[in-house]
Each structure stands twice: as structure tokens, then as C-alpha cells.
Specification:
The chain is an alpha/beta fold and 260 residues long. The chain has one domain (3-259): Rossmann fold, CATH 3.40.50.150. The protein is 39% helix and 16% strand.
């Protein structure tokens, strides 16, 4: 796999790690895949603090998605940059129409562990080239999650994706995390994704940067809610809060919701 594709190992490890510890979320699938594949991570990419962050981030995405599915039961779900993620299992949406989208070699690897059904399809596609949307026959409404993806796309590429999604669907809800420009600059020196070969990443400071003519910024969400910090104890809780929560964290990572 190329560098961007290899970044899927980092959140996979994080979710397997926290699931095995019994905190933040339960992800037996991640545990199974990580144990079976025996991927090798090094340096910061295998930090327990980063694993905690990945676990909490996924739990926050899961919570938002569960609420959106409840509010719009007929909407299709599209997970762009799915990697090996088992979100469809975690949110118990096996009976909901769901599309997981990622690069062809990632989908090929994914099919070793996941089986398609009438309600679940895997699509090989690039977020920068929206031709894959032709495989999605539904047009009315979609709930789209992009976890750990936007930082590999330029603002123009993100806007092109927003335009394409809006052109395809009558109604749309999008949940996306992003680096700040400061974080993108810092990543040239210190970033776990460098450990899997990724050099170029992008960030934004204004959530309106991802808006299109039809897609509107709704609100910013808390990336690391206090309730998850409280699942840790003592020194770990203190360090994790300092590293990944509060004002310092907001200088690095943001979490935005958009709607059409």
C-alpha cells in the first residue's frame, strides 16, 4: 500500500487497543483484524496516547452517526475513507443501506474481513475523484462521515467533493474532522502519519472553507468530550486531557458538521 493507505493501520490499532482495554468503545472486529494481520507500527504511531485519541474520535463519530440515522431513517450512510473500520457493526446499522468507500487496494484488503449484502456495499474510489458516486443509486438523502480523511485533501478537493455530493443527493449531512493550518505545518516535523510514509497534509482554520454553494456549516463539535477523559484514571487522565483536549487540542484538530 502507499503512504496514505497505510494510515489506516493507525486508527485500526487504536480501536483494537482501547477495545481490548474495555474503554471508549467495543470493537472486537478491530481486535481480530489487528491480531490476524500483525501490522508493524513504530514510533509515535504506536503511542498509547494516540490510541486513546483514535478510540475517542471514533466513539464521537459513532454517536453522531447513530443520532443522524435515528433522525433520518431513510438516508443512506456513506463512510469515505473507511479503511478497515467496523463502524457499521458498532452502530448496529447492518439493516441500513450503507456504502464504505476507499482506494481499490484498501477495499480489496477489506473484503478479506467483510462481506457485502443487500444493505452493505464496498466501493473502490478516491475522494478526489467522485466517479464512484455512480455506484450509489439512491438520490434522496445521505449521511456522510469522513474520519481522518480531510487532512489528505486540499481545500479545492474538499470543495469538489462537497459539490459532487450535493449534486447527487437532495439532502445531505456531513461530519468531518480536520487539521488546523498550524497542525499541518507542525506535521512536517512531528506527526505519526510520517511513520507510515505520509509527508503532505493540509489544514484549515475556518470551517466555511469546506462549504459549497449548497453545503452549509452547521456547528463545531467537541473532539474529546469530558465523559471519555473520565474513563481514564489518575496520571493517564491528566496527561491525555493535556495532550488531546481543551484549548491546546483545538489549535490542532477540529470537528465540523455540515448540511444541505
Amino acid at each position: 500500500m502507499n503512504g496514505v493507505n497505510k494510515t489506516l493501520y493507525i486508527p485500526l490499532y487504536g480501536k483494537a487497543y482501547v477495545s481490548k482495554k474495555g474503554i471508549f468503545l467495543e470493537d472486537k472486529k478491530a481486535e481480530k483484524i489487528w491480531e490476524a494481520e500483525g501490522f508493524s507500527l513504530k514510533g509515535k504511531s504506536k503511542s498509547k496516547w494516540l490510541a486513546y485519541y483514535m478510540g475517542v474520535r471514533s466513539a464521537v463519530f459513532d454517536e453522531w452517526l447513530k443520532q443522524q440515522i435515528e433522525d433520518a431513517p431513510n438516508a443512506v450512510v456513506i463512510h469515505i475513507g473507511c479503511g478497515m473500520d467496523s463502524r457499521i457493526i458498532r452502530v448496529e446499522a447492518e439493516n441500513h443501506m450503507w456504502y464504505d468507500v476507499d482506494f481499490s487496494e484498501v477495499i480489496e484488503e477489506r473484503k478479506r474481513y467483510y462481506a457485502e449484502s443487500d444493505n452493505y456495499k464496498m466501493i473502490a474510489g478516491d475522494a478526489r475523484d467522485c466517479g464512484w458516486l455512480t455506484a450509489v443509486k439512491e438520490k434522496e438523502a445521505a449521511i456522510v462521515v469522513m474520519e481522518g480523511v480531510s487532512m489528505y485533501l486540499t481545500v479545492d478537493e474538499m470543495q469538489n467533493l462537497a459539490d459532487s455530493l450535493c449534486a447527487h443527493f437532495e439532502n445531505l449531512a456531513l461530519f468531518v474532522d480536520a487539521y488546523t493550518s498550524f497542525s499541518a505545518k507542525m506535521s512536517k516535523r512531528r506527526n505519526p502519519v510520517k511513520d507510515v510514509g505520509v509527508i503532505e497534509v493540509y489544514g484549515i482554520d475556518n470551517p466555511q472553507a469546506y462549504q459549497s454553494d449548497e453545503l452549509v456549516f452547521v456547528k463545531e463539535h467537541t473532539m474529546i468530550p469530558q465523559k471519555y477523559i473520565d474513563e481514564l484514571k489518575g496520571f493517564e487522565r491528566f496527561i491525555f486531557a493535556k495532550l488531546y483536549a481543551g484549548d491546546f487540542s483545538k489549535k490542532l484538530y477540529r470537528l465540523f458538521e455540515y448540511k444541505k
